Amino acid sequence: MDADAILAFPASGHARAVRVQEERHLDPALAALGLDRGRPALVLVGGAGDLPDAQGLSPLFAEIVALSERLRTSVVDGGTDAGIMRLVGKARAAARARFPLVGVAAEGTVVIPGGPPGREDAAPLEPNHSHFVLVPGSEWGDEVPWLGRVAEALVGRAPAATLLVNGGEVARRDVEASVEAGRAVVVVAGSGRVADELAAEAHGGGLLASGLVAVVAPGAVPGEVARLLEGQK
């Protein structure tokens, strides 16, 4: 793949992609993608496998897509065709939304259309994303620091937040990175695994003690995310 390329997905259109090797190259890479700066950004993290209640979560993602379209939000996630990334991609396509959906993936963990897999369990890229940033790495989780870097480069002084739905150990690292960066995190209660583990820690300190992590019922998630992305106190 060239440094700035168009990826073609059968039956679902095209996406623009860049390869970034060093953090200092990120700003020109995002400029090459034609992404607007100064938008609010939502970092979406969580389950990348078959979610136990994927169908039940679909309405939540439809609401997140509608909110992102209304606020002209850039949504940043791991970009693979699995779990929450598949759900948000499908919801965006169904709504014919136009907000940037930016997948950030370690290049050695994914299959680039027309190219060989980086490893035996490499994942395909989700075909309804509008943009991809491919970063160094061949292990799951190598993309974690880059999710925040991409979001921060996109927002400028605009607000940003992280949304956790379900998730495993990599998602916990994503939440830890968000807290370390001072970015508010919304945890969807009842979505399973790490999200529910964090919800159970609500009265016991840990990440919740930072004051940046809020555990929210699914029905209240769009309102809480909107509050954060609109910069409300």
| Cross-sheet strand order for the largest sheet | 1-2-8-5-4-3-9-10-11
The first-to-last residue Cα distance is 44 Å
User: CATH first level: which class?
Assistant: Alpha Beta
Major beta sheet, specifics? 9 strands, mixed
Helix/strand order:
EEHEHEHEEEEHEHEHEH
DSSP helix count? 7
**Quaternary structure annotation:** single chain
Number of strands: 11
* CATH fold group: Rossmann fold
How much is the radius of gyration in Å? Answer: 16 Å
Helix/strand-derived category reads alpha/beta
How many domains comprise the coordinates?
1
Fraction of residues in helix: 25-40%
Mean model confidence by pLDDT: 91
Fold and architecture overview:
The chain is α/β, with parallel strands linked by helices and 233 residues long. It has helices at 26-33, 54-71, 83-95, 144-155, 169-180, 193-200, 221-229; strands at 4-9, 13-19, 41-46, 74-77, 101-106, 110-111, 123-124, 131-135, 160-165, 184-188, 213-216. It has a nine-stranded mixed beta sheet with strand order 1-2-8-5-4-3-9-10-11, sandwiched between helices. Helix 6 (193-200) links the parallel strand 10 (184-188) and strand 11 (213-216). Helix 4 packs across helix 5 (169-180). The longest helix is centred in the first third of the chain and has 18 residues, at 54-71. The relative contact order is 0.18.
